[in-house]
Specification:
heterodimer, A: alpha/beta, 7-stranded mixed beta sheet, 10 helices, globular, B: alpha/beta, Rossmann fold, 2 domains, 15 strands, 19% strand
């Protein structure tokens, strides 16, 4: 019999703990497939965040680190500077990367650390139960913004791709989304491209993935995908913000 | 090799390089900047990497990553910067990653000052970060001893898979003293088969982690780590004594303060007063056993702990003496250094002599 599909070797057999309809599982698979296709699983090191993906170290089938909240880019820096041949990636959520870890991500990009950051933006703190994130949209309800995020009180959501794209050593900055198959395929291409550029030693690479949180958004998985498309993409436009192929 | 005049901070950095440390991550803060500056110049010569981090928070997490990948790595800072590192130090202790952290202590609390102090003893020895953990804490009292202890610190770190803190002060960092770099005896060290430096097709993935959501598992991990701490307490106590024979008053002091106290002891001897010194070199494990033994001697009337703080190590001295003899305290704080005459007077007050 001909094998037409196989689970990627980049993931372990551990059962994922994510909520039904959550897109973390898909994003894990895209990263794992990219690492497998590039044949670098045995020289890969991933850094899990604090947040919903905290157990990512159990899911990726390569050497893994659990970092303190927001510190994954600093941990990745220590790994990459001592062991430059390791294909090193951080997997971080919006609270981890854009709030408590804002300094670490900006300076890792500034130094041009040859790492890949996968930034999963679902506009909310998932693990801790639905608190407001730095990427929560205006009017979006969160447990710490019960009347919806108020621009006067808490400002506007941070657009990380747009910020990081101003940094010369950030050689690849792209925003993708998980709301339909077409965009998932595009996301896979972006993730693979980011790893490819890292392997070529070009510089810091960053892929923001717009993701859903049906549980904390109070929506069904399908409603959540629709909400992402209708509400997140207008504020967080998808596309490439920066590609410097010739950079070194 | 003959003796050379070295500034404390630079000697500490060179000692680390000679111990095989190839990686250093740090952030500027006085009075320890010469360590970073020396490393920035020196590490590229040995094929290593110096990197100035965006903060002490980042430095210690870079150390976490570097150590996790199996490298010999160090960071240094001074008191406020070490406070910022406490989160990372707790994670490093929990994930059992070997590394050396140097604290060239300055006066505090808050921004404090930049003069020498010993007011970070609690932070160093009682768990500056969250959770149940210990650091091995070594406190040199000369530039030569700093050089020796920094080199040994890397071996202790690797042997027990634990962070080791070298606790100096602004004086030891800034002063120059004659130093001889000689090869220190190397310990037999285990292979770093736990390092997450790529499976390279040879083993299953390694995970560097400190998360145990099940309370039972977290407890088991802590109990296991405390067995390791018990082994360290058994084997790694370092302590020096001076003039204890016939001592009526036993002083306890560490680091630079111990040199002030030994001068005071010599002065007292000329005046016919017998005082001695116990100098803890390892602050953790603390030399409680030796202090307890001395406290039991019939000739010993009292203890005097001298520190550049409002009284921190004195609590451990009191625990060790355990009520057998009175324990007095004399300290200067905020960057002030005790004077010999002041220590002499404190001892005289205890023995009832006229001052």
């Amino acid at each position: 019999m001909k094998t037409v599909f196989e689970k990627t070797k980049g993931l372990t057999d551990k059962e994922l703990h994510y909520c039904p309809g959550c897109t973390h599982g898909i994003i894990h698979r895209l990263i794992a497939e990219a690492l497998e296709e590039l044949d670098v699983l045995d020289v890969a090191a991933g850094i899990a965040p604090v947040g919903c993906a905290v157990f990512a170290y159990d899911y990726f089938n390569c050497d893994m680190y659990e970092a303190a909240h927001g510190r994954a880019p600093a941990v990745a820096t220590g790994i990459k500077r001592t062991t430059p041949d390791l294909v090193t990636f951080t997997y971080q959520g919006d609270g981890d990367l854009a709030s408590i870890g804002a300094a670490e991500i900006v300076h890792a990009a500034g130094r041009g650390e040859k790492i890949t950051t996968i930034f999963v933006n679902n506009a909310i703190y998932g693990m801790t139960g639905g608190q407001m994130a730095p990427t929560t949209l205006i009017g979006q309800k969160a447990t710490t913004a019960p009347r919806g995020r108020d621009e006067e009180h808490t400002g506007m959501p941070l657009r990380m791709c747009e910020m990081l794209a101003t940094i010369p050593k950030a050689v690849y900055v792209e925003r993708v989304a998980m709301h339909d198959i077409k965009h998932i395929i595009q996301a896979k291409k972006a993730i693979k491209k980011a790893f490819q550029l890292q392997i070529e030693g070009k510089g810091f690479t960053f892929v923001e993935v717009l993701s859903t949180c049906p549980t904390n958004w109070g929506k069904t998985p399908v409603e959540a995908l629709e909400w992402l498309e209708r509400n997140m993409i207008p504020y967080f436009p998808i596309g490439n913000f920066r590609t410097v192929e010739e950079g070194k | 090799m003959s003796k050379e005049l070295w500034k404390g901070n630079e000697a500490i950095a060179e000692a680390a390089v000679r111990a095989g440390c190839k990686y250093f991550f740090g952030y500027p803060i006085t009075p320890q900047n010469e360590i970073s500056e020396y490393m920035a110049s020196r590490l590229p010569e040995v094929g290593g990497c110096f990197l100035q981090a965006e903060s002490e928070v980042a430095s210690i997490n870079m150390v976490y990553g570097a150590s996790g990948a199996g490298a010999r790595v160090m960071t240094s800072s001074s008191s406020p910067g070490i406070s910022l590192m406490q989160e990372g130090i707790s994670y490093i202790a929990a994930a059992e990653l070997p590394c050396v952290v140097v604290n060239i202590v300055r006066g505090g609390p808050g921004l404090g000052g930049i003069q020498p102090a010993q007011s970070d003893y609690f932070q160093a020895c009682k768990g500056g970060g969250h959770g149940d953990y210990k650091l091995v804490v070594l406190a040199p009292n000369s530039v030569q001893e700093a050089v020796d202890l920094v080199q040994e610190a890397f071996d202790i770190a690797d042997l027990y898979r634990t962070p080791v803190l070298v606790l100096g002060d602004g004086m030891i960092g800034q002063m120059m003293e004659p130093v001889e770099f000689y090869p220190i005896p190397k310990r037999e060290l285990p292979e770093k088969n736990w390092a997450a430096d790529g499976t390279r097709g040879k083993r299953p993935p390694n995970i560097i982690n400190s998360l145990y959501l099940k309370a039972e598992e977290c407890e088991i991990e802590n109990l296991r780590r405390y067995e390791k701490y018990a082994a360290i307490q058994k084997s790694e106590v370092k302590c020096e004594t001076y003039n204890l024979e016939n001592a009526e008053v036993v002083c306890v002091a560490y680091g630079m303060t111990s040199r002030v106290v030994s001068n005071a002891i010599d002065t007292l001897e000329k005046a016919g007063i017998n005082a001695g010194l116990i100098r803890p070199v390892s602050l953790w494990p603390f030399p409680s056993g030796i202090i307890a033994e001395v406290a039991a001697l019939p000739g010993v009337k009292a203890f005097l702990t001298v520190e550049m703080s409002m009284g921190q190590m004195v609590e451990d001295v009191r625990l060790a003496v355990s009520g057998k003899k009175p324990v007095h305290f004399y300290g200067r704080t905020g960057g002030m250094v005790p004077e010999v005459s002041a220590v002499v007077n404190e001892v005289k007050r205890i023995t009832g002599e006229e001052i």
